[in-house]
Write a structure and sequence with these properties.
alpha+beta, Porin, 12-stranded antiparallel barrel, 2 helices, elongated, signal, coiled coil, Transporter
């Protein structure tokens, strides 16, 4: 029995150190594992923080580039290994400096900056990324023409002998225009413009018997559909480097308005010999009465923060016959009319203040040659005084009301006698 106890004690003495050694080794492995896990968690947390900082910096750069250059594509997002990718906070707030803190905010900032550029391009017929746009516009123009007519001669180089006549024409016109723009493809847009015109004209004539104090006055009105235009815009070149975006425009205008030929006249005053001294049309015309074809080029170049634009074009008028082309109310003379061809050009610059507002300033001019008339079985004769040079200075403001609607205002100031004294236009294009 003692021998068995002694053997058991001896066995325990041999096994116990081994078990203790194994337990000590296991405890060291657990400690090392815990240390490695702690180090891994620390590295993961540090990596996640660096990834978030990297994404925040990337979003800030995208927002900054969107503000500086609306047309520039956002920089590529940093490539993060899929197995180590850690999602950024879903609702990170915008920083105090106004930088975007998410990809959605950065893309929204870039789209907003591009919006002001698109609005300016739309006014220059250089926008092709909208399927259908409906535009309503209202324009007011004021004309005031005064003319002093002397019929006589100077006696002793100082005294005028003869009749002095003063003529004054004041005209106010209000035009509502409906336009539809259909984007067929990224290079072609079709346009339809249908105006409705209302006019009021005041005629004054003085100088009976050589006295400018004797003045006769008459006011006439007219309203109706104007001349409708169907046109197309085709993008020749896109903007690249120094080359601007170039668009070719062609259109045709139909004489759907009331022509100014063959109108009824109101005789206001006759002299003793029954000669008409003062007569005015009974109703104002709303169109020019002839078919016209036009062709032009427009160019747009972005140069942040400015947008440069220019256009040039030609309008061809075709001859047309009428039952009466004589301005004398007492006679009826059928014949043909051919309006003079016209050339127009203009240039300007627009500044995009922010994602919604832009300001533009431009100059436009239209040169028209003399018109010609031919009575039946007669020869063509030039109409004296029918040529024109209409130059205007234009100031415009464009404001984006919503993501689809834009408000455009334009003030035109006449620089030449043939241009309106001033004009004021309001447009509201809506993208469908």
């Amino acid at each position: 029995m003692n021998r068995l106890a002694m053997a058991a004690l001896a066995g325990l003495a041999v096994v116990a150190p081994r078990v203790a050694a194994q337990e000590a080794a296991a405890g060291g492995d657990e400690a090392r594992m815990e240390a490695m896990l702690a180090q891994l968690e620390s590295l993961k947390a540090s990596y996640a923080q660096e990834v978030r900082r990297l994404r925040d910096l990337d979003m800030q750069m995208q927002a900054m580039q969107a503000r500086i250059n609306g047309r520039a594509a956002p920089p590529a997002s940093p490539q993060v290994p899929a197995q180590a990718a850690i999602p950024a906070p879903a609702a990170a707030p915008t920083t105090g400096e106004g930088y975007a803190s998410s990809a959605t905010e950065a893309q929204a900032a870039q789209d907003a900056a591009r919006r002001s550029v698109d609005d300016v391009k739309q006014q220059q017929s250089a926008l092709f990324n909208r399927r259908l746009t409906l535009e309503n516009s209202l324009s007011y123009a004021r004309y005031d023409r005064k003319q002093l007519t002397l019929n006589g001669f100077l006696a002793l180089d100082a005294i005028f002998l003869g009749n002095i006549a003063i003529e004054n024409v004041e005209s106010d016109s209000l035009t509502w225009n409906f336009a539809a723009r259909w984007g067929v493809n990224p290079r072609l847009t079709l346009n339809l413009d249908v105006p409705y015109i209302g006019r009021k004209t005041l005629y004054q004539k003085g100088g009976a018997g050589g006295s400018a104090a004797a003045i006769a006055q008459e006011e006439t009105h007219g309203a109706g559909i104007g001349d409708a235009t169907l046109s197309a815009n085709y993008r020749l070149f896109g903007e690249r480097g120094w080359r601007p975006e170039t668009v070719f425009t062609a259109g045709i205008t139909a004489p759907t308005g009331r022509e100014p030929y063959g109108l009824d006249w109101k005789v206001i005053e006759r002299d003793d010999d029954d000669f008409i001294r003062f007569a005015v049309p009974a109703e104002q015309p709303t169109g020019n009465g002839v078919w016209q074809a036009s062709a032009g080029l427009s160019a747009v170049k972005t140069a942040d923060p400015a947008i440069l634009f220019a256009n040039v074009g030609y309008i061809r008028s075709f001859k047309r016959g009428f039952g009466d082309i004589d301005s004398n109310p007492d006679t009826v003379n059928p014949g043909e009319v051919k309006l003079g061809d016209s050339y127009y050009f203009g240039a300007g610059v627009a500044f995009a203040f922010n994602e919604r507002t832009s300001l533009s300033i431009s100059f436009s001019d239209k040169l028209s040659a003399r018109a010609s008339t031919r009575y039946k079985d007669g020869r063509w004769m030039k109409v004296i005084g029918s040529d024109a040079n209409a130059g205007s200075l234009n100031l415009g403001v464009t404001y984006a009301l919503t993501s689809r609607a834009t408000f455009v205002s334009l003030l035109g100031i006449g620089l030449t006698p043939d241009a309106p004294d001033f004009s004021l236009s309001f447009k509201l294009p809506y993208a469908m």
